Amino acid sequence: MKILLTADPELPVPPQLYGGIERIVDLLIKGLRAHGYTVGLIAHPESTVDVDAFFPWIGRRSQDKFDALQNTFLLWSAVQKFQPDLIHSFSRILYLLPLLGSRLPKIMSYQRNPSFYTTSWGNRLAKGSLVFTGCSEHICQIGRTAGGIWHPIHNCVELEKYTFQPTVADDAPLVFLSRIERIKGAHTAIAAARQAGRRLLIAGNQVNTEEGNRYWQEEIAPHLGNAGIEYVGPVNDIQKNELLGQAAAMIVPIEWDEPFGIVFAEALACGTPVIACPRGALPEIVRQGVDGFLVNNLTEAVDAIKQLPNLNRNHCRQRVEKKFSAEVVVNQYEQLYQNLINRPILAPV
């Protein structure tokens, strides 16, 4: 079977540091080729993942109209050259426009909140040849309001990249690992760590906008170097594995509806419990009191930190092995491909 995958044009596959969609595309390509599929990819020109056919995007900006026009034509041209049995898009549904009415099976995967307008017209134009996946049931629930057939397929991690640490030191630090912006809750993580009397290591990219810089200067920087609060900067995969493995917990008390942050599965793969908030996909990832704690306020976050010794880190690793490993998720996509190929035109919805 020949599968043509697309990723957003901004980042290469795999990404050098952060890039959740690109990581999933990379893992999916590796898994599919290991299972004997012929895989083509349309992505950023600097992508390095091994594929059977590669077509670099011309436009590099997803939101630019001229770039979108160029990329739409490129995707149509790639289909003519590669002749796939199925198209699987992790990029923009607009790029599929000339192909929506064809009988070729198509999957549109969302790692972010889907647009009601574009999803609904895409579903109508495709006349049953297009199905959708969301990286969580949370995303699928949003998408279903626009119609279409939706399948929740969670994000995943390569287990071999993350070293399971069954125990950590009694004074092991907490870790915040995410972008340093308000919606990720670094300020709450600092407050919780200080009240609980625990060290906190903050890792991740600063956000270089007026709002992001103000947040850093007013709510993060004044605490660094005091009461065990440290900033270690952005981290690559090797550093991430080491950082998460030594942590008593990863604390990312989000203030938005997270679609599915891969970092939560990465922490669990190291055996590290997660402290976050019950928003977005987090209730699908973390089992309360088993893999970590979902908290609603600062008081609950402090209490969760104190309860960490009661958790079994083996349960965290087992959670990822059963639900969020690359093998499990690739098999789910593969089953979806087989179903669509065997029934290429579905009943219009």
UniProtKB/TrEMBL annotation:
Identification of the protein by name: Glycosyltransferase
One GO MF term: glycosyltransferase activity
Domain of life of the organism encoding this protein: Bacteria
Coiled coil stretches, renumbered: none
Domain Glycosyltransferase subfamily 4-like N-terminal residues, every copy: 18-160
Domain Glycosyl transferase family stretches: 170-312
Entries under PANTHER family matching the protein: SULFOQUINOVOSYL TRANSFERASE SQD2 (PTHR45947:SF3)
